[in-house]
Design brief:
The chain has 18 helices and 14 strands. It is an alpha/beta fold and about 450 residues long. It folds into three domains: about 200 residues, 3-Layer(aba) Sandwich (Rossmann fold); about 90 residues, N-(1-d-carboxylethyl)-l-norvaline Dehydrogenase, domain 2 (Orthogonal Bundle); about 140 residues, 3-Layer(aba) Sandwich (Rossmann fold). The radius of gyration is 24 Å and the shape is elongated.
């Protein structure tokens, strides 16, 4: 089978590469000529553990190809996956212009039956807009070619995307014809051999499932952060509370770690889009509106702790920020809490030195020369008045206390992910501030 994947961003590149790994012939298309040339040369535009090796192996075996030519990608394909961006518009709704542009190209070029699959995260009702865009082009050609639509939302975690695709919790597919189901079932047959559930449903339900899943996870994060803030006021310890509620199988222990809020390309965008969809139908999404408000406030929690510790006298002080990506094992800095924290420190007249294992180049696009970037984590501590831990990369977990004491002007740590032991830090002479602990 031949499959075309349009869009070589995070979702498209992982999707195409992992499908190639199962033995399918995959053509990944992007209109960005430089990106495609880089991919052909083995230069990967994103950081995702293990992805580079899979791309190298499958391109070498000629199962994975990259092109900027729509005709090369679409002709002869059994399915075309649309995996382009759906950035939020000014009103918070998803911008579908790139999705519909691809749909028009499909309608202009197909010569045989094909399943058009929306892999991008799109609002409920998008499939019908895609269907119309394809059909409009067929009508212009006076063609009676048949095609089907499918919705196949992705559930990939950045940093674990390869395992998430190859060993999925579930595969959700929205279809409205037996013919489309047969094609999609064949595409995902290799995953069924290991018992991964394949769930077929109608297209609107599949579109809603993606948003509902991300909205639920975002809700858990904002909930525990709200509880953490109350813990500080009451003298409770959110880490102990988390263990207490996480042991309940109805709640579970995932996504209930207190911190500085969620970021990335999915949760913020999808929560906004679902709120917008609610407004379109005259139904306010009251819980999600609160989830979003809590998350925005949470990104300022560490800065407030810094201001309190230094009695609001921050001008001229230097602070170190460890971690710039929104989560470990990715270079994605979109909606990253570090951006808000650093912006507030700069506004207060502080100097900021930052270190991240992989995300510094990406982060520089936002802050230019306003932030000093260092080659390693300890270099960033030289003459600093405080360390602010934002992203819990593994290399930050064990501290070299003698080195830190020599480098830091003031021995205070603001732990935005609760990865350090307060008693151990205090034993070594450090003042500690965490989240949700008095």
């Amino acid at each position: 089978m031949k499959v075309a994947v349009v869009g070589t961003g995070y979702v498209g590149l992982v999707t195409g590469t992992c499908f190639a790994e199962t033995g399918l012939d995959i053509v990944c298309l992007d209109i960005d000529k430089k990106k495609i040339q880089n991919l052909k040369e083995g230069i990967i535009p994103i950081y995702e553990p293990g992805l580079d090796r899979l791309i190298e192996r499958n391109t070498a075996d000629n199962r994975l190809k990259f092109t900027t030519n729509y005709k090369e990608a679409i002709e002869g394909s059994d399915a075309v996956f649309i995996a382009v961006g759906t950035p939020p518009g000014e009103d918070g709704g998803a911008d579908l212009k790139y999705v519909l542009q691809v749909a028009s190209e499909i309608g202009r070029l197909i010569k045989d039956y094909v399943v058009v699959v929306t892999k991008s995260t799109v609002p409920i009702g998008t499939a019908e807009k895609v269907r119309k865009a394809v059909q409009d082009e067929l009508d212009k050609r006076k063609s009676d070619l048949e095609f089907d639509l499918a919705s196949n939302p992705e559930f990939l975690k950045e940093g674990d995307a390869i395992d998430d695709f190859l060993k999925p919790d579930r595969i959700v597919i929205g279809i409205d014809s037996e013919r489309a189901e047969k094609i999609m079932r064949r595409l995902y047959h290799p995953f069924l051999l290991n018992g991964h559930p394949l769930i077929f449903m109608d297209i609107p339900s599949a579109e809603m499932t993606k948003y509902a899943a991300n909205a639920m996870l975002a809700t858990k994060i904002s909930f525990i952060n709200d509880i953490a803030n109350l813990c500080e006021l009451t003298g409770a310890d959110v880490n102990l509370v988390r263990k207490g509620i996480g042991s309940d199988s109805r709640i579970g222990n995932k996504f209930i770690y207190a911190g500085v809020g969620y970021g990335g390309s999915c949760f913020p965008k999808d929560v906004k889009a679902l709120i917008h969809t609610g407004h379109d139908y005259g139904y306010p999404m009251r819980i999600l509106e609160a989830v979003e408000d809590v998350n925005q406030d949470q990104k300022a929690v560490l800065v407030n702790k810094v201001k309190t510790h230094f009695k609001k006298e921050l001008k001229g002080k230097t602070f170190t920020v460890w971690g710039l990506s929104f989560k470990p094992n990715t270079d994605d800095t979109r909606e990253a809490p570090a951006a808000i924290i650093i912006s507030e420190l700069l506004k207060a007249g502080c100097q900021v030195k930052a270190y991240d294992p992989v995300a510094m180049e990406e982060f520089k696009n936002n802050f230019d020369d306003k932030v000093s970037y260092t080659k390693d984590r300890y270099e960033a501590l030289i003459d600093t008045h405080g360390l602010i831990l934002v992203t819990e990369w593994s290399e930050f977990r064990i501290l070299n206390y003698p080195v830190m004491k020599k480098l830091m002007k003031e021995k205070v740590i603001f732990d935005g992910r609760n990865i350090y032991d307060p008693a151990e830090l205090e034993e070594h002479g450090f003042k500690y501030y965490g989240i949700g602990k008095n």
